[in-house]
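ok so I'm stuck.
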Amino acid sequence: MSSATDARTEVSVAPGESVQAALDAAGPGTVVRLAEGTYEGSLALTEPGVRLVGAGSGRTVIVPGAVAPTTIPPLHDAPDGVVSGIAVHAVSDVEIEGLTVRGFSGAGVYVHSCSGVRLRDVEADDNRVWGLYLRESSDLAVERCRASASQYAGVAFAFCPEAEAVVSDSDCTGSAFGVFVDNSSRVRVLGNRCHGNAAGILLLHQTYEGELPGGVRDCLVAGNETVGNTLAAGGEEPDALGAAGPPISGVGIAAIGVERVAVVGNRVHDNRPSGPSVMPGALVLASSADWGGSDAVDNSFEWNVVTDNEPFDALVGTDPSAQRFRNNVVGSSQPEGPFGGNGPQGTV
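replied:
not stuck anymore, here's the structure
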């Protein structure tokens, strides 16, 4: 292990050396740089202002091994004792870049009670419960990341009331939800590709027993492609995809119980259910008031292209007069208004 002092202190770690030892010794402004290779063992980031930088996703890979001690709270919707690949707890101004986290029993990256966290070019692959899970935190960025094959979401923001967060230019596949905005506000979902999930993008306000109150407000969902989301999630089996929730399949974008959310310029196509779904549409707006959430009010849907989905391209399950629908191209809708009928069209 070698170090060099520049404008920032930099520590280099090679396969076989302890990444956790380097993180434990790092002070604010330290770059811990991982060479290409595979590193065994979970990691805990406990110091502010640290950058953990790999050689690139798929080139620097973190896999299960020794478990690093962490004070992070238990992971939501997970069995006791699961281990997350990288735990980031109660620190600020942390960056993780250019690595893959694979095969952990919890989340790939689990962020809790933090501010100023940046994840760039991070791949979360085949982590059992969540991919990239950011909770009760603010000033967050998930950029150019990839998340696949988790029980719940590839990328999730949970209980972040003033998230000031962005997930952009990322690819999410093979999970219950590609991107999940769960009781979090001020989140921007921009230019992502969500495919091969049960639901591509889900924004949801609901209450959970023993959890914080929440809401989903002042979010922007723009320029995303949600395509081929055909998996089936939900059910009574504890290991099922999305087991904690109702049956969902074939959904591109769903906004449930949200306020002041703008859904703009997205392409939603070829989403088809392969099992039961409480939301039989590819673009869904609905209330969650019946299960402790809220009505959906003051939302905007503009310039979206929603075609070639089954059974309906769009489903509006709340008062359309409390929303704005402009210049969308939509095939079939249920009910026929506000998108206006059966057949591609723009609504003004």
